[in-house]
């Protein structure tokens, strides 16, 4: 009788262990699925060399985007340092690009953006600093990324965004928070595997 009871006890514990393991792995798989939070509309701007650069240049690429302006003395230098760190981390990944959109195009000419890129030791083959008309930049920030306010002459956000190969926004990350930047790094790496 004791052997039968012990056998049933072992079987029940084994089943409980299997059920717990299944729950754990299925939860972790779900946690790795990133939501689709929007889609970036088609755009065409100018890079630091004065050459056209748009969404077609990012086709089949994963990209990390932020909004800034070069004369900002507040959050922009911190955000640009975070972007520089991501630029170094993904240096060898040809499918990940970084995009920094200026929100002060009247001042941030390609030449000014080029100086700014040098200050942060940007690999400008993978980290693109873009300018263009205020209308297009406002459309990108407010309508595509849902950041900033159209009423503000110079608006920007502390958020850094992750965009997948299809131009879909997959995450917003507080650029002032190191833990959020670590999460961005992991989730960008996750998209690379897809």
Distinctive features:
194 residues; Glutaredoxin; 2 domains; 20% strand
Description:
By secondary structure, the chain is of the alpha/beta class. The protein has two domains: 1-31; 38-192, Glutaredoxin, CATH 3.40.30.10. 41% of the residues lie in helices and 20% in strands. It is built from five helices and eight strands; from the N terminus they run αββββαβαβαββα. The strands form two sheets. Strands 1-8-7-4-5-6 form a six-stranded mixed sheet, sandwiched between helices. The protein has a two-stranded antiparallel sheet with strand order 2-3. Strand 4, helix 2 (76-89) and strand 5 (96-102) form a beta-alpha-beta unit.
The name of the CATH architecture of the largest domain is: 3-Layer(aba) Sandwich
Q: Mean pLDDT score, rounded? A: 86
> What coarse outline follows from CA principal-axis ratios?
globular
Give me the Rg, rounded.
22 Å
Strand content: 15-25%
The number of helical elements comes to: 5
How are the strands ordered across the major sheet? 1-8-7-4-5-6
Structural class: alpha/beta
Please identify which CATH superfamily of the largest domain we are dealing with.
Glutaredoxin
Helices and strands in order:
Blueprint: H1 2-31, E1 38-39, E2 44-46, E3 52-54, E4 62-68, H2 76-89, E5 96-102, H3 110-119, E6 127-130, H4 134-144, E7 159-163, E8 168-174, H5 178-192
Parallel strand pairs: 4-5, 5-6
Antiparallel strand pairs: 1-8, 2-3, 4-7, 7-8
């Amino acid at each position: 009788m004791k052997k039968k009871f012990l056998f049933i006890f072992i079987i029940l514990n084994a089943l409980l262990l299997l059920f717990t393991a299944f729950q754990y792995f299925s939860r972790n798989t779900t946690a790795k699925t990133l939501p689709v939070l929007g889609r970036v509309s088609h755009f065409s701007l100018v890079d630091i060399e004065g050459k056209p650069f748009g969404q077609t240049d990012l086709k089949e690429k994963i990209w990390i985007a932020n909004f800034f302006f070069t004369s900002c003395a507040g959050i922009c230098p911190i955000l640009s340092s975070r972007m520089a760190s991501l630029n170094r981390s993904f240096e060898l990944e040809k499918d990940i690009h970084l995009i920094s959109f200026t929100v002060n195009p009247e001042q941030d000419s390609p030449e000014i953006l080029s100086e700014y890129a040098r200050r942060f030791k940007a690999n400008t083959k993978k980290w693109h600093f873009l300018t263009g008309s205020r209308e297009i930049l406002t459309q990108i920030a407010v309508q595509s990324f849902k950041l900033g306010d159209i009423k503000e002459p110079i608006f920007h956000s502390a958020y850094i965004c992750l965009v997948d190969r299809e131009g879909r926004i997959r995450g917003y990350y507080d650029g002032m928070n190191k833990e959020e930047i670590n999460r961005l790094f992991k989730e960008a790496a996750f998209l690379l595997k897809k």
